[in-house]
Amino acid sequence: MNLSMDGSLGDSYHSNSQRARVITEAWGEGNLFCPNCASQNLLRHQNNTRAFDYKCPGCTFDFQLKGQKSRIGDQITDGAFSAMIEAIRRDATPNFFFMQYELADWSVKNLLLVPSFAFPESAIIKRKALSLTARRAGWVGCNIALNRIPLDARIPVVREGEVIPASEVRAKYRHVKPLKELKAKERGWTLDVLTAVRRLGKAQFTTAETYGFARELEELHPDNRHVKDKIRQQLQVLRDRGFLIQPERGVWQVKR
Question: What pLDDT sits at residue 49?
Answer without folding.
Answer: 57
